[in-house]
Amino acid sequence: MPASVLIVDDEKNILLTLSQSLQLAGYHTELASSGQVALDVASARPVDAVLMDVKMPDMDGLTALGRLHEMKPELPVIMMSGHGTIDTAVKATQLGARDFLEKPIARDRLLVALRNVLKHQAVIEELQELRAQLGRYDMVGTGPAMQRIFSLIQRTAPSEGRVLITGENGTGKELIARALHQHSRRKNEPFVKLNCAAVPHELIESELFGHEKGAFTGAVSVRRGKFELAHAGTLFLDEIGDMPSAMQAKLLRVLQEGELERVGGAETIKVDVRVIAATNKNLEKEIADGHFREDLYYRINVVQIHSPPLRERREDLPDLIDTFLTESCARNGRKPLKLSPEALSVMASYDYPGNVRELRNLVERLAILCEGPVVSGPEAVELLPRGRGGAVPIPSPAAPSAVFPAVAPPMAPASPPSEAAPTRAPEPAPQVGFRPRVDRTFREQVEDAEREIILHTLAHTQDNVTEAARLLDLERGHFYKKMKALGLRRSAADKEPTQGPSGE
Ligand SMILES: Nc1ncnc2c1ncn2[C@@H]1O[C@H](COP(=O)(O)OP(=O)(O)OP(=O)(O)O)[C@@H](O)[C@H]1O
């Protein structure tokens, strides 16, 4: 299909001459005798490039260029003028014109200019397509949780709405932020990131807003901050829950008014930045504890996207492992490795406290260390943090799936069986799958372990409470109280007499 060129000029004979030249060269042409007609044509019909006169009555060419780009920001426009001054040419370029031709226009010069802008446009479109494909490829996951995230990205990206991304470390929050940018209207502008937790408190203002020369010791020259660098694009504020309180107030002002002053500067600078924030903290709790400003929370939390931990979306594990394995093998110059079903089962039984980042690192280690071509179960066990992988599946009543159990495989208790348990039966003490975590408090982890010990022992005694209490060397009444405190209920299969325990 020939490229379609819209020619805009108030002089009829110029319109006809240019149109004839372009048609002879194989282009399709559309003609407009004014800026307004040009806007109407461009909104109604497909146009690949525009050739527009600067001087026209009613609406001049520069104004029409601005309006055209509001409507179609990427449409290539070549401006032409009989009274071409450097000033007009510069202004046209600043407004986004791709080229500037002086009248009378030589046919060859016109055709070269047109060919160049169309080629340039094709390269831009190809790059955008590649970026979009990369964006899709970057985020792996076919399960319902990832599908929900993809759908939110698709709906939210084209808007200007601020987004708050929540989730544990390593769950892909930064990838989500990048995907939002890549699919937004700002995609050709900068994506700038600041990790608020990684910058010392006294430097964060200068990082965000920049500083003037001499603003503080060490400020040897003027420096633009992240907001200025992200102008027209996206600023990703990672770990926003770690932003110091004084800075939160200043950030709020930029979000409200879109202006800032560099540290040590008096000039007010206007910025147009879409802010996307991420946190691994519960900001509502941080607000209740007086650590985070509620007004800032509402400003950044227009749309919230939660990225669940990997252990809650185990259905994505096979695809993730496959992708990382292919990448890692290619990076390390080796033939593609495959996982045996046993190895996959071992890897699927681990709960990845470091989430996708940890999985990615483990797979990279596999690609370096395994002899291949197929990773065996024992090799996968060896890979996982010591004591966590490849053990016999725990007969836990809490495990919902045999293929991807929700609890980690068992680990032997750290301490030897208590000597103060003379009544304990001679059979081996039950093992439990305790694993320390960084995302739960000490108390919660102790309770998790207690709950697991009780459930495991009950599974071992086939729900015989008296026997379970005896094995654990606890008073039967105390055992019941513990169950109640931990939110555990006697199951239908409970083999105990029906009357409640004393003190219940
Ligand atoms: N769905 C996914 N598909 C492919 N790779 C992923 C996915 N999610 C996360 N990753 C990979 O896991 C690693 C961690 O991701 P990312 O940095 O986006 O997480 P994060 O939540 O921002 O972490 P942090 O809170 O520590 O900054 C990266 O290497 C990223 O490419």
Task: Give me a quick take on this structure.
This protein has 504 residues and is of the alpha/beta class. The protein has 19 helices and 16 strands. Adenosine-5'-triphosphate is lined by residues 139-141, 167, 169-175, 238, 280, 320, 356-357, 360.
Characterize the structure shown.
By secondary structure, the protein is an alpha/beta fold. It folds into 4 domains: 4-127, 3-Layer(aba) Sandwich (Rossmann fold), CATH 3.40.50; 141-308, Rossmann fold (3-Layer(aba) Sandwich); 311-383, Helicase, Ruva Protein, domain 3 (Orthogonal Bundle), CATH 1.10.8.60; 426-504, Orthogonal Bundle (Arc Repressor Mutant, subunit A), CATH 1.10.10.60. The chain is built from 19 helices and 16 strands. It has a 5-stranded parallel β-sheet, sandwiched between helices. Strands 7-10-13-6-14 form a 5-stranded parallel β-sheet. Strands 8-9 form a two-stranded antiparallel ribbon. α5 packs antiparallel against α7 (173-182) and α17 crosses α18 (465-471). The protein is elongated. The relative contact order is 0.06. Residues 387-432 and 492-504 have low confidence and may be disordered. The structure holds adenosine-5'-triphosphate. Adenosine-5'-triphosphate binds next to α7 and α15. Adenosine-5'-triphosphate is lined by residues 139-141, 167, 169-175, 238, 280, 320, 356-357, 360.
